[in-house]
Amino acid sequence: KAGVTQTPRYLIKTRGQQVTLSCSPISGHRSVSWYQQTPGQGLQFLFEYFSETQRNKGNFPGRFSGRQFSNSRSEMNVSTLELGDSALYLCASSLAFLAGGRGTDTQYFGPGTRLTVL
Amino acid sequence: AQTVTQSQPEMSVQEAETVTLSCTYDTSESDYYLFWYKQPPSRQMILVIRQEAYKQQNATENRFSVNFQKAAKSFSLKISDSQLGDAAMYFCAFLIQGAQKLVFGQGTRLTINP
């Protein structure tokens, strides 16, 4: 099976702009999670989507948003970019059974999108 | 809230030797998973090993094994016969069963000396 793919791999934007990142999960995986990685804050959870619904959200401002499509592909959007948004954005997918399921919560990561805000 | 602590920012080991990376976590949950991921310079996060909290047996994957001490909330990773390709940042992570939010430690940078 093909792994998780993310596009684009690199992005350079200026403050105030907005950006959209894309993630295609492993075939058959229904859950997509997004993480931000920075040297100062480490890896932080942004949000998770399952069956086109946001199920979990991390502690990020409303400028960070996302969505999931019927084919499980997901996008995240950051509006009004700030310098501090410069980071590696990682997407991960998992099978994620509904509540009560077991053994399917392992997340597999994509290569990431490196966002630089100037 | 769950927290994960990796107390060793950096570790180094001679090629072919054994190294152990430490991880402790804090949670009030009883049903959860623990993971070790590695992130080489390519930045691709790669799953190394996984442990379900309800299983008493320690997980092993070839040269990688864990020492899971549930009461002590400790989850260390042992790498045997270290290879140059093992050089990477290693992250310990925690996930509550049924939730898709990984909580990561700060990472341990592992260097392999030839």
Description:
The complex is a heterodimer of chains A (118) and B (114). Chain A is an all-beta fold and 118 residues long. Helices cover 0% and strands 51% of the residues of chain A. Chain A has strands at residues 5-7, 10-13, 19-24, 31-38, 42-50, 53-57, 64-68, 74-78, 87-94, 108-109, 113-117. In chain A, the strands form two sheets. In chain A, strands 2, 4, 5, 6, 9, 10 and 11 form a seven-stranded mixed β-sheet that branches. In chain A, strands 1-3-8-7 form a four-stranded antiparallel β-sheet, with no helix packed on it. In chain A, a hairpin with a 2-residue loop joins strand 5 and strand 6 (53-57). Chain A is globular. With 114 residues, chain B is an all-beta fold. Chain B has strands spanning 3-5, 10-14, 19-21, 24-26, 32-39, 46-52, 60-61, 64-69, 74-79, 88-96, 103-104, 108-113. In chain B, the strands form three sheets. In chain B, strands 2, 5, 6, 10, 11 and 12 form a six-stranded mixed β-sheet that branches. In chain B, strands 3-9-8-7 form a four-stranded antiparallel β-sheet, with no helix packed on it. At the A-B interface, strand 4, strand 5, strand 9 and strand 10 of A face strand 5, strand 6 and strand 11 of B.
